[in-house]
Amino acid sequence: GPADADAVLAGLDPEQRAVATALHGPVCVLAGAGTGKTRAITHRIAYGVRSGVYRPQQVLAVTFTARAAGEMRGRLRQLGAEGVQARTFHSAALRQLQYFWPRAVGGEVPRLLERKVQLVAEAAGRCGLRVQRTELRDLTGEIEWSKVTQIVPEDYPAAVAKAGREAPRDAAEISRVYGIYEQLKRDRGVIDFEDVLLLTAAILEDRPEISEQVRAQYQHFTVDEYQDVSPLQQRLLDQWVGPGSSLCVVGDASQTIYSFTGATPDYLLGFRTRHPDATVVKLVRDYRSTPEVVHLANGLLAQARGQAAQHRLELVSQRDAGPDPVYTEYTDEPAEAEGTAHRIRELLARGVRASEIAVLFRTNGQSEVYEQALADLGLPYQLKGAERFFERPEIREAGMLLRGAARAGADTLAVDGPDLAAQVRAVLATRGFTPEPPGGSGAVRERWESLAALVRLAEEFESAQRAAGRDADLAAYVAELDGRANAQHAPAVEGVTLASLHAAKGLEWDAVFLVGLTEGMMPITYAKTDEQIEEERRLLYVGVTRARVHLSLSWALARSPGGRAGRIPTRFLDGLRPGSSARSGARAGRGGHAGAEAGGERAGGRRNRGPVKCRVCGRALTEAVERKLRRCEGCPSSMDEALFERLREWRSEQARTHG
Ligand code: ATP
Ligand code: MG
Predict the structure, then answer these.
(1) What is the 3-state secondary structure (H, E, C) of 456-493?
(2) Which of 115, 158, 206, 539 shows a CA-CA span of 20 to 30 A to 323?
(3) Which helix (H) or strand (E) is 283 found in, with range?
């Protein structure tokens, strides 16, 4: 009843409450990081459901990542609103496409293209072009950008010129590759990620009776992170939201960090123009971060320029005072990683949980050295933003094995046999899984962490089943895994999070380490235009605002021990970190001398450990990248191919960003 629903409003401030109670929309929330946007929309849905205004099946909550969708479902369950759909644009569209394809097009739904980059390579080959591996990814990125901004191959050259976008190679060539890529997909009856949205939108536009059916199904929409919606996603949303529907969007223009993929804050900022009757709510109370962290975030915002900056909102922390952000300058990258790992160990010793700590970097290639440093200290960690848990090859394989074992075990095992986790461990052991983590880092370690998560899940499942008075056999566990895979619920790995700044969006941790904050990384070398530089600044703002209490910012003067100390800290911290003064002019020059104005403490160099040798063959390693991994690239045996793949990627990424 209504009194029951009101309980949902108890945890909200007056502005958030205004959002939650405006059930019929349109509603637009413009607010900075940590002000409770996600919380407000989650409570709004729960309020709608519990007051009986929304039927749960009629609600679609659109989130930016599958993980965010999973978290929202969990929160809604806690708030007593089960059965609400929380999905990404992509997963919602895919479901509709699968459902309506037979009727709209006929036949089977095309398969999803798995190796997109390979197909782009093939298309380039057919155009007679030779492209490097790194270039291939840029080329793929251009095709993706074109598709989400709804540019067909013929229009690509003109569109690039108009957008002031720097094409990775001749625009006419890219246009040809893009065209052939589309042709190849058609010939093979496969579709790519973007096609899922394009085709769904096209079906809904062409077939009024289908769009009527969709509109009858979903009537209440919320969109989180609306500042990063692409034109293609907006087109889909326009199809979904009918005249009788309610729409609530929340976003922060200062957190637009995906414009390279076609995302734009225009829809957020123009919401009121398109919906003159919209309730517009601004939130300024920051519930996430301490005043010290918020002070730095506000400082970054104050220096921001451009369109998004005109809509910035000063944040006001609601939390008690905490420690000041810590700024640290290191001599080289391995020293930075080692120093970070030691700080993390101190936090753990002081009782901060590993899952409440994150190390955030600009490019995924930077993770390797941190993985190594954490592994050296025996600290658990997990990589974010990589493949989704249940889609990882090792998890698929494990799933098959467990299913087989469950079938075989159905008649042989008495359920007083070994406990479930022990059975799972035994099955995984046949594929080399060990109870203790293997030494080393990279893909090998990641694979182990994934499998360990399956074991932990078995433990949790077993105790939950026991508590409910039910049996927990392997078959029940496999069914649970299937259920989770369908819901894309990855079990949380208990470890320090390593993630790119992009992947950290919307998340929060007690302690956040922002590493590698040098010119060239932040802003990244290839950010050249003022707009691109501003996006880099927003990225740092996103990073800073992930921290609840402890915030560490660090950089290294040289790449490798003994290397040339030619790096300087990011311009974005000028005037904000102690000992620095604001640099004059909008764009700071490169190559200035770092020592002159470096603030914060200076950390010692790395201990000299003698020559670093390959773990496999024992050869002394000379290449910096090999030294970091402690393996030589040419080593013939026992190396996981995936690790080398990442090594190569990392190498080229490094080559690109450090010249
Ligand atoms: P971001 O822009 O980073 O996505 P956000 O605006 O979505 O941030 P939330 O993640 O919803 O912010 O909230 C930030 C933190 O503050 C969360 O831990 C949330 O539970 C807490 N919080 C939000 N509103 C309140 C409130 N009224 N009372 C107590 N805690 C709150
Ligand atoms: Mg949020």
Answers:
(1) HHHHHHHHHHHHCCCCCCHHHHHHHHHHHHHHCCCCCC
(2) 539
(3) strand 279-283
- The atom of ligand 1 lying closest to the CA of 31 is 6
C-alpha 262/C-alpha 148 separation (Å) is 6
Which ligand is the nearest neighbour of the Cα of 15? 1
CA distance 635 to 637: 6
Ligand 1 midpoint to CA 15 (Å): 13
pTM across the whole model: 0.74
CA gap 9, 18 in Å, rounded? 10
Which tens digits make up the pLDDT trace of 308-327?
Answer: 777 777 899 999 999 999 99
**Which of 29, 39, 42, 78 has most ligand 1 atoms within 8 Å of its beta carbon, as the pocket-test mutant?**
39
* Sign of torsion over alpha carbons 535, 540, 546, 548: negative
- Kindly give the pairing relationship between strand 381-383 and strand 547-558: unpaired
**Which residue in the block uniquely carries the two structure tokens 């709510």?**
281
Q: Tell me how long the chain is.
A: 659
Three-state DSSP class for 17? helix
Helices H, strands E: what count in the chain?
24, 17
The mean pLDDT value for 498-523 works out to 93
Between CA 214 and CA 223 the distance in angstroms is: 17
Q: Are 458 and 417 in contact (CB under 8 A)?
A: no
Q: State the pairing for strand pair 85-88/326-332.
A: unpaired
Ligand 1 mean position, distance from CA 506 (Å)? 9
- Whether ligand 1 lies within 6 angstroms of the CB of 287 is answered as yes
Helix (H) or strand (E) holding 367: helix 367-376
Give the distance, in angstroms, between the CA of residue 456 and the centroid of all CA atoms in the same chain: 23
For residue 523, cis peptide bond before it (omega within 30 degrees of 0): yes
pLDDT digits (tens, 9 = 90+) for 202-251: 999 999 999 999 999 999 999 999 999 999 999 999 999 988 899 999 99
**254 with 542: CB under 8 angstroms?**
no
The answer, yes or no, to whether residue 594 has pLDDT greater than 60, is no
pLDDT at 606: 36
In angstroms, the CA 442 to CA 373 distance is: 12
463's CB contacts (< 8 A; 6+ apart) are none
Residue whose CA is at the smallest distance from ligand 1 atom 24: 36
Instruction: Compute how many other C-beta atoms are within 10 angstroms of the C-beta atom of residue 387.
Output: 13
Q: Does residue 17 have its Cβ closer than 6 Å to ligand 1? A: no
The whole-angstrom separation of Cα 155 and Cα 559 is 42
Residue 289 CA to ligand 1 centre (angstroms): 10
Number of Cβ atoms within 10 Å of the Cβ of 526: 13
Task: For residue 656, give every residue at least 6 positions away whose Cβ sits within 8 Å of its Cβ, in sequence order, or none.
Answer: 134, 525, 526
Both tokens of 382, joined, read: 């997990």
| Cα–Cα dist 210/201, whole Å | 11
Asked if the model's pLDDT at residue 7 lies above 60, the reply is yes
Pair of tokens at residue 43: 């409570």
618 is in an annotated binding site: no
Q: What interface predicted TM-score (ipTM) does this complex get?
A: 0.99
The predicted-structure confidence for 278-299, as pLDDT tens digits, reads as follows 999 999 999 999 999 999 999 9
DSSP state of 510: E
Residues 298/302/305/310 CA torsion (nearest 10 deg):
80
**CB distance 64 to 385 below 8 Å:** no
Ligand 1 in reach of 364 Cβ (< 6 A): no
Q: Where are the beta strands (DSSP E) in 17-77?
A: 27-31, 59-63
